[in-house]
Amino acid sequence: MTSFPVKVLAALLTVGLATAACTGSSRTADGAAISIESWRTDDAAIWSEHVIPAFESQFPGIEVEFTPTDPTQYDSALAGRLAAGTAGDIIACRPFDASLTLFERGHLAPITDLAGMENFRRSAQSPWTADDGTTPYCVPLASVIHGFIYNQTAFDQLGLTEPTTAEEFFDLLDAIRDDGRYVPLAMGAHDRWEAATLGFQNIGPNYWKGEHGRLALIDGTARLSDQAYVDTLAALQRWGAYLPADASAVTYADAQQMFISGAAAIYPAGSWEIAGFAAAADFELGAFGPPPLAGQDACYISDHADIGLGMNPATEHSEAARTFLAWAASSQFAEIFSNALPGFFTLRDSPVALEHPLAQEFVSWRDECESTIRNSSQFLSRGEPSLEHELWDVSASVLIGNMDPIEGTQRLQAALDTWYAPKDR
Questions:
Q1: DSSP annotation string for 240-271
Q2: Which domains are delineated in the chain?
Q3: Is the pTM of this model over 0.70?
Q4: H helices, E strands: number in the chain
């Protein structure tokens, strides 16, 4: 997830919020004290109770404080602190352009020679690598995976099984709708982004063939008006028949509540929902990946880079900060973080044993399918209009029947044509 603000999830997770404001680093009698900037307010207890104690027990000369900012204010607040010279020593990095901008402005240090970076393949480093393709500036921490979470009780009552193809998925939705006891899909279009992120980017990789299609958009050998994108939006348009009543007014938080209350059978999901849903739902949860097209040789999943960690070049404790970053690239960190925060999966080459069964189900799709990232994330949302924001509008409009799929794809490509050409990359 990108991680979007989650109104309901914050209430679902029983974690405390950090209240200390970041005022830069200081020195203790025993060594360095460093602070971590982040937008992940929901994770404060995980860092203070699991991650930081494990690090400090191994490196007793370094004290670490996790000081998150509300996600809606993080970017602007961080920019202000960086400009004022009061930002923390370590910076939580959003993927691609947001962090690239910080790097280009001199607010993130290159970490080309950081121990542990060899544990991440080039594709895992790419969301936090300069356009030269060789200079990383953040340690990759975790990705989130898209799919569908379902109410196992509802499936058992209706005698339903997980779909194996896209058409079986619609047969499943028909069966739920015809029974009438459950809303088939807990999703709305009010907030717009969820139609693109949980809809278009969830099922789309099976239509445009994952990384092959994503890179083809970047190099200009494919266009958003191609049949693969028409078919993606056409499939999304079919979802409209299975949504809650007045779906255009249903918010992200409404859809979450609808699912955990047991009123809906299936939730188009990002794996970041796992911990909250598991804590709040009083029924067993199941999950299945985006079903491939019938006869398709391979399946594809959105396994999207979500968060990394970089170093503030202005830190007075660069050695301590680099020590922490190198530890964040270790298998020890990956195991602690992935299990303390189920649904956020390590980007290290070596797998981690996961304790949460639903998280293990999501990550198992990596072994079955080819991974890709959201196709609007790299290069294609740098200009105006941003492809990301265009996808929000188009996907939401198509989902509720206010726009034809062909019209939608033509609008997307026309918007991109106003500023992007492959030669500009």
A1: GGGSPTTGGG--HHHHHHHHHTTSEEEEEEEG
A2: 7-142+305-354 (3.40.190.10), 145-302+373-424 (3.40.190.10)
A3: yes
A4: 20, 11
Residue carrying structure tokens 């490196």? 59
Residue 425 CA to residue 165 CA, distance in Å, equals 36
In contact, 310 and 108? CB cutoff 8 Å: yes
Q: Provide the residue-wise pLDDT of the chain in tens; the chain has 425 residues.
A: 444 333 333 333 333 323 233 333 334 434 799 999 999 998 999 999 999 999 999 999 999 999 999 999 999 999 999 999 999 999 999 999 999 999 999 999 999 999 999 999 988 999 999 999 999 999 999 999 999 999 999 999 999 999 999 999 999 999 999 999 999 999 999 999 999 999 999 999 999 999 999 999 999 999 999 999 999 999 999 999 999 999 999 999 999 999 999 999 999 999 999 999 999 999 999 999 999 999 998 999 999 999 999 999 999 999 999 999 999 999 999 999 999 999 999 999 998 999 999 999 999 999 999 999 999 999 999 999 999 999 999 999 999 999 999 999 999 999 999 999 985 55
